[in-house]
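Structure tokens please, single chain.
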Amino acid sequence: MTSGFDCGYLPGEQELLAMFETPNWVQSVLDLPMRTPQANQRLQEKIISVAQAPAPVNPAALPEMAEIISGKTYFSN
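Here you go.
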């Protein structure tokens, strides 16, 4: 499995070294070209899904959700 980014194929991992030299690593990675149109489409879909606001959560359900996730409650009533 690969990320779909067109990087890591040149000697010396030039893209990785360039990423270390920039103050904005995330933008550095997002600026890399994609290997295939399908990889580019998947990346765009992921960016859109992350940028969307999450659905509202019912605050009354949070203690119950904590119990389900970990088997114990982290909230004191």
